[in-house]
Amino acid sequence: MGFLGDSWEYQFFPWMPSTVKLTIYSSETLHTDYATPVLQTIVGRVAKGIYQPNIHKVFSFTELPQAHEMMEQNRAAGKLVVKV
Question: Is 45 helix (H, G, I), strand (E, B) or coil?
Fold first, then answer.
């Protein structure tokens, strides 16, 4: 879980299962005055197509079991995408 901002107002999710572990990391050196422009540069480059995603395979929603099997077997050399 992460955020960029100067405030933290986290409330535990009432639907979070007891088996889920939430890890929070805070860096006092990261401030919005210089982090926001860097993040915006990355977003702009994604929009321009400069950064290309490493997509191994795109599955239809009906192929969800096959996608999950591939993920569990660690057979993907990139991201697995499921179209809904």
Answer: helix
The Cα-based distances of 15 to 10, 30, 37, 57 in angstroms read: 14, 30, 34, 31
In the Cβ-directed half-sphere of 63, how many Cα atoms lie within 13 Å? 12
pTM given for the model: 0.48
The residues near 50 (Cβ < 8 Å, ≥ 6 apart) are none
- If pLDDT is split at 50, 70 and 90, which confidence band does 78 have? very high
Radius of gyration of the chain (CA): 18
Say if residues 81 and 55 touch (Cβ distance below 8 Å): yes
Q: How many residues does the chain have?
A: 84
